[in-house]
Amino acid sequence: MQIIEAVPNISDGEHPDIIARVVAAASVPGAHVLHVDSNADANRTVITIAGNPQAVAESTFLLIHTASQLIDMRTQRGAHPRLGATDVCPLVPVQDISIEETSRLAEKLAQKAADNLHIPIYLYEENARTKERRNLAFIRCGEYERLPDKLRTLPPDFGPKTWNEHVAKTGATVIGARKFLIAFNMSLNTQDVTIAREIATQLREKNGGLKCVKAIGWYMPAYRCAQVSCNLTDFTQTGLSEVFETCKKLAATRGLQITAGELIGLVPQEALIKAGHFYLPEEKNTATLIDAAVNKLLLNNILPFKPNERILERVLNSLYL
């Protein structure tokens, strides 16, 4: 059975009614909304959809369409970087499908969204036409506020290439196939966002930090603390425990501690097992390793971490077994 995952990120975490309507639009036969993760301070919602590749593509198109109707980028503000109403929409191969097949599906989705919704679409990761465009941060540099210039200096792959009232409302969307990405935030016992940004700078691969790690620092008013927010683009190269322990050391040099770890969306089980092995190298029991990872990474300190609801394979098994 072929299964892909889509993880559209919409630029609204403040309005439950809008989020619910966007999520409802994604409900089509053969595609399942597995998880919805909203944050009002980031003003962002991460939605995880999985199922039959064609159904997931259709589900995602309908989601992008609805988000473009309900979210007005002219008034949108939040801590998370963003380019459009649906900021980014990666497609991820999960079972019995290659990254190449998934990439072709992403290309068709991008073309369809541009043609039918008149949204500028940038291709990234496996679908990027140039090396620089593989990197989401490169495409999103300057964010929505710089989009009028970006359309001219960095033209989208599909859709409008000039600024107009419709594009002003919808912004642009980035689409492409990629491997699993883990979004992992670490809360610090400080409200000083400058320190979080300093630590994030040291963690980033592009600054000589950890391989396959991207990071930013921001302030989360709801938590009353600064966070280091990381994307692990290949957890087999650098895992959760390595990121956590490195951040912990960098915080300690500044007299600070990590008070909580927070995973956004779903996580592959192997990523937690790998983290558990870091702390219990001789352990072989899967449940014990996952418990060790959850405890050591402080994943219960903000909200209860429920493995059956947060581990991708377990959620999929509940649907297909």
Describe this structure in words.
The protein has two domains: 3-177, Formiminotransferase-cyclodeaminase, Chain B, domain 1, CATH 3.30.990.10; 182-320, Formiminotransferase, C-terminal subdomain (Alpha-Beta Plaits, 2-Layer Sandwich). The chain is built from twelve helices and eleven strands. It has helices at residues 16-25, 53-70, 99-117, 136-140, 147-153, 165-170, 193-203, 240-252, 269-279, 286-296, 307-310, 312-320; strands spanning 3-6, 9-10, 31-39, 44-51, 86-95, 121-123, 173-177, 182-188, 213-220, 225-232, 258-264. The strands form two sheets. Strands 1, 2, 3, 4, 5, 6 and 7 form a seven-stranded mixed beta sheet that branches. A four-stranded antiparallel beta sheet has the order 9-10-8-11. A hairpin with a 4-residue loop joins strand 9 (213-220) and strand 10. Helix 1 packs antiparallel against helix 2 (53-70), helix 2 packs parallel to helix 3 (99-117) and helix 7 (193-203) packs across helix 8 (240-252). The protein is globular and about 55 Å long. The chain starts with a strand and ends with a helix. The model has no long low-confidence stretch (mean pLDDT 97).
Number of domains: 2
Reported by name, the CATH topology of the largest domain is Formiminotransferase-cyclodeaminase, Chain B, domain 1
Number of strands: 11
Uncertain segments are none
Query: Which structural class do the helices and strands define?
Result: alpha+beta
**CATH class wording of the largest domain:** Alpha Beta
Question: Which shape, going by the Cα principal axes?
Answer: globular
Using only C-alpha atoms, the radius of gyration works out to 19 Å
Assign a percent range to the helix content.
25-40%
Please identify which CATH superfamily of the largest domain we are dealing with: Formiminotransferase, N-terminal subdomain
Head-to-tail CA distance between termini: 12 Å
Mean pLDDT: 97
- Secondary-structure element sequence? EEHEEHEHEHHHEEHEEHEHHHH
Biggest sheet features: 7 strands, mixed
CATH architecture of the largest domain: 2-Layer Sandwich
